[in-house]
Amino acid sequence: MSSTSLTPNLSHLSNESTLSGELSQRLFTRRELIPPDNHILWRIERGAVRTLTWSEDGIFITLGYWGPGDLIGYSLSKVQPYQIECLTSVEVSIIPQHLWYKDIDAFLSHIKHSEELLSIVHLKPMSLRLGKFLLWLSGKFGRDVEQGKLIDLNITHQEISEVLNTTRVTVTRLLQQFEEQGALLRYKRRIILLSPNKLIKNIV
């Protein structure tokens, strides 16, 4: 994944649109990168993205997962390198700097979710870390289905391991363990939490 490709500054587009009280919107496809621009923020209207960086030896480190209502943008982080990757097709509204003050609640939410995820990735043992992360995902991307709570996000075992600082093999083994305990179901790349209470009770 390269961070060298740049796109033109888009702030002038949002300035023009906000003169009439409307925000410019843009669509991105799955796996597309949100272009870097420190003069604007993006509010997710539909879809999911992850923010990430990587170490000198090329190991990806996921910094956060974001969905509808969340603010994202390169000015929200001092981490370098830094990228925003679309996990689904994504629709965003472009928020220019002079309107950022209107999104105080979204800024506070961004801070809270970042700190919550940071606390999860330091939990021990790894089974507790994974269980808490699944509950965190269900809070952001979950929807009720007949069997329980579906995490409506196509996330791979490798991507989970990049969040939790572990290996893909460990994630696969623990998910199998949770499934055998009756705490979750796996359907393709989706996860259904059958019993969140059982998920945590079995690992603490």
Structural features, described:
The chain is an alpha+beta fold and 204 residues long. Helix content is 33%, strand content 25%. It has six helices and eleven strands. It has helices at residues 11-18, 104-120, 126-141, 157-164, 168-180, 196-201; strands at residues 25-28, 40-46, 49-54, 60-66, 71-72, 83-86, 90-96, 142-144, 149-151, 184-187, 190-193. A four-stranded antiparallel sheet has the order 1-7-2-5. It has a four-stranded antiparallel sheet with strand order 8-9-11-10. Strands 4-3-6 form a three-stranded antiparallel sheet. Strand 10 and strand 11 (190-193) form a beta hairpin. It is globular. Residues 1-20 have low confidence and may be disordered.
Give helix and strand order, one letter per element, not per position: HEEEEEEEHHEEHHEEH
Instruction: List unreliable stretches of 5+ residues.
Output: 1-20
Q: What is the β-strand count?
A: 11
- Using only C-alpha atoms, the radius of gyration works out to 18 Å
Q: What kind of sheet is the major sheet?
A: 4 strands, antiparallel
End-to-end separation: 37 Å
Please tell me what the overall shape is. Answer: globular
Count up the helices. Answer: 6
The averaged pLDDT comes out at 87
Main sheet: which strands, in order across? 1-7-2-5
Return the structural class: alpha+beta
